[in-house]
Target: Aromatic ring-hydroxylating dioxygenase subunit alpha
Amino acid sequence: MEGIFGNHWLFAASVAELPEPGDYVTVDYGPHSLILVRDDNGGVNALHNVCRHRGARVLTEQSGTTGNLVCGYHSWTYAPDGTLIHAASAPGEKFDKDCFALKRAHSRVVAGLVFICLATEPPEDFDAIIPTIEPYLLPHELNKTKVAYQQDILEEGNWKLVMENNRECYHCDGHPELACSLFPTWGLSDGLIPPHLEEVWDRNQTAEQELQDRCDRYGLPYRVIEELNTRIAGFRISRESLDGHGESFSESGRRLSKKLLGDLPDFRLGRCSLHLQPNSWFHMLSDHVITFAAFPINERQTLVRTTWLVADDAVEGVDYDLDTLTHTWKQTNLQDANFVALCQKGASSPAYEQGPYMKSEYQVEMFIDWYRQRMQEHLA
Amino acid sequence: MEGIFGNHWLFAASVAELPEPGDYVTVDYGPHSLILVRDDNGGVNALHNVCRHRGARVLTEQSGTTGNLVCGYHSWTYAPDGTLIHAASAPGEKFDKDCFALKRAHSRVVAGLVFICLATEPPEDFDAIIPTIEPYLLPHELNKTKVAYQQDILEEGNWKLVMENNRECYHCDGHPELACSLFPTWGLSDGLIPPHLEEVWDRNQTAEQELQDRCDRYGLPYRVIEELNTRIAGFRISRESLDGHGESFSESGRRLSKKLLGDLPDFRLGRCSLHLQPNSWFHMLSDHVITFAAFPINERQTLVRTTWLVADDAVEGVDYDLDTLTHTWKQTNLQDANFVALCQKGASSPAYEQGPYMKSEYQVEMFIDWYRQRMQEHLA
Amino acid sequence: MEGIFGNHWLFAASVAELPEPGDYVTVDYGPHSLILVRDDNGGVNALHNVCRHRGARVLTEQSGTTGNLVCGYHSWTYAPDGTLIHAASAPGEKFDKDCFALKRAHSRVVAGLVFICLATEPPEDFDAIIPTIEPYLLPHELNKTKVAYQQDILEEGNWKLVMENNRECYHCDGHPELACSLFPTWGLSDGLIPPHLEEVWDRNQTAEQELQDRCDRYGLPYRVIEELNTRIAGFRISRESLDGHGESFSESGRRLSKKLLGDLPDFRLGRCSLHLQPNSWFHMLSDHVITFAAFPINERQTLVRTTWLVADDAVEGVDYDLDTLTHTWKQTNLQDANFVALCQKGASSPAYEQGPYMKSEYQVEMFIDWYRQRMQEHLA
Model:
């Protein structure tokens, strides 16, 4: 917890979860609880959810709207920037309110995604990747989206198993719904295609070429940038084609919402996917966005929060059907939760020893290499 | 647990919970389980609830009546004083029953309140406070009361947070029912009254003067004695006025039971309140008594047991209505349980640091000072 | 766990639970999970239930039938002997399947009882006891039985308390159903009979003599062999008489299934009982067999699995009534679970100290002596 979650930029929420000033969400990373609150200038403050008086948790709901933040115990009242603005006191009581603002964490909003950092000195490396990833993400204009649905799954495995599971498609036979649109050849490359996937691979190649032509036409970046183990803010970003109609995560590959996001020119834009260590991944499509956040609970449980965003003017029942929109990833998440639980259980046996990674799992190896580096640096 | 609960006198129950010889209650302090059983002479024995044969828990109910104490495993049978009086054995089996009495803890009954001590040598300091507190308590004659109601709340916080919460009324805005009768200026003094409480304070002062006059007339002690951090058996005792009619913890301040306790001469006697470290507090009124005991479960949970006592000849439905009698403190206890849980959660964050105490919280500071002293002595 | 369950032969199941090739059961000993699978040659393989790829638990059901063992995560496929026979891979991927068979534990089938050993070098002492115990067990021909019923109880006590409880009948007043057929004088001997058991003892002596005559006639061994603390595979075996009709664990002592096991010549054969450390005991009667296995969960919980076996051609509702067959031990098990829980609770008190064992508990003392020896050897 300290080495990884204490020293890195962590995904917390998207701006669609905090559309108006005063809107807040609370998120927990292990024993840490944080309040993210939108201020009047549109910024997002990250505040430790710990009253400076007696330590009570200040906000107890997962989300809501508030003017000031009032602790439920003795009514100490904080502004959305954390400043203590009221604490009942006796006349003449010497007490400097300025010393007791809620502790702040660092926060950044990148293309509508809110990140926080618990470290005193956040790693500067995060700044360096922003210019690289923003061109991929900005066209989806998250600030013009709204939350269609949010799902929390308490997975019976630690956060590391959750992230490892996300870095390979070697298990994609276990995701029949997802495999309709996401090519199960993901993670493979020429010369490594197993016979039963050769046909899919050909389709994938063709779709990829078409997508790249389309992106070139629209000036959208698509190149795979893979820096999972070469920097502190390990990440992978790309825009990749989808199977079938190539529009969205549906059985046919067709759009799931009728409203295009932002000023996107076309529905057939595949998926812009970002994996960002240590705790998040994202799929941005032309018609909706899905954010995934892993919040560690303890050494054997992780809360995985999935949020579906659609254009803020999309109307449920008219422009999208909620069950259809969320079907593929709801199923996929449940399948993944089961895989993670199997690993947690099995790897808890004293008989467990690390096995070999297949070539299609090279990103898992990269992630583990990153983890080793980060922990070595922390422990040094 | 060892430093505090192993080395101090602990409140366990009142004699009203054990009215007849053979009546018992079992109480747990962390991993310790004790039997309190009334013997034929009216004394109360405190016995470790651990069979001397194979270690089985002897009594499993929270309370009841028994002749001898029979272990459910092999029927070893103990007298109410713990003596082993029967263990099935083979003819000629050499076995000295005298060596296997149930282990005893120290016990004392003070004005009808039963205390136990787990230490080999109980701190003598407890003897010293008895002559001080008895004159306050004895007039309520607990030996002539009966249990009207008992409530157990499993609070999601450690016992220290429970006790700290009890030492201040800075949070009394969170107790609307209680604030009808208990002056929320409690803990304040002249010159420290915040503007919104000035009117209450004037009422409080007037009521206090009237109560003191009345007590002087009846020969009842009322002076505040506050020795929270100046001795091992840290305590605070006083008789203080109540708001409204000044009789009891009701919305109007009027009596909640029609029967006066003991030989008390008047219903308008406010509340005689005792706080006794480490684990109890009491409110004794003219018409009923409430005892509060904090039983630590583990490092983050505490069982808080509240018991309402009325005159033993008071008849439910005639002299008192049970819901009305218990309303104020049932609500107050739930509110306090919530406050304690907020503190436990918030203070578990690595971002927590101790904050400033307000003047109205001076007793919390005293309690913490006592705790530090006691732990230092234990660790030395 | 390591000293005892890591270094001894452990009972897992009987062959009646795995009648056909491909049948499997999974059993857990603390953090260890094992698959027992019957192979085509009638042998039983014990395999660690941990995929060699990423550590996922391979089989998740408690029992079933399978061809090969397929991991649910990435479909790695193992033969019933643990050999990895398929793992999807890319063309040309260098990967030696021979190195990634499921790890095996040692396994032995003794008279139809399946034992496993987690140690690299199993203690040889187990081999030595087999010729001693087989003559007692083999006549019941477990390979011609079937499972009539299986009951799992999660006992709130550690495995050691479970085993200790099983080694004495000093508590048999707590087993009224069992005491109808199992003489509660069990564990006693001449000169040690308490007065209230004298009549039972006389009956017991007579029944014993009759049983021994009968066994002599049929060539069945019956002598008590008690090596609880004189070897690594501590055990006790005997054939002892039952009360009443002397046939089975019923109220009258009469048979509970109409079909004799194996080629047994008579129903009146009492009980052939085996206690085998560290985790099992067995009662073999002429009409049915009961196996008991203690699977430790953690330091305060144990799963006790009881399995009733009848002749494989016995027909439920015709030859036996399931409720009647299982009644005595279902009740006895629940009573024992309560005793174990009482001990776990009481012995967790810091006030607990070990008490004296009565002569009728000499086998508990032997078991504890064995435990001390085994742990000393492990820690040395």
Chain C touches chain B through 29 residues (CB under 8 Å). The two ends of chain C are 16 Å apart (CA to CA). Chain C has two domains: 1-123, 128-380. Chain C has a mean pLDDT of 96.
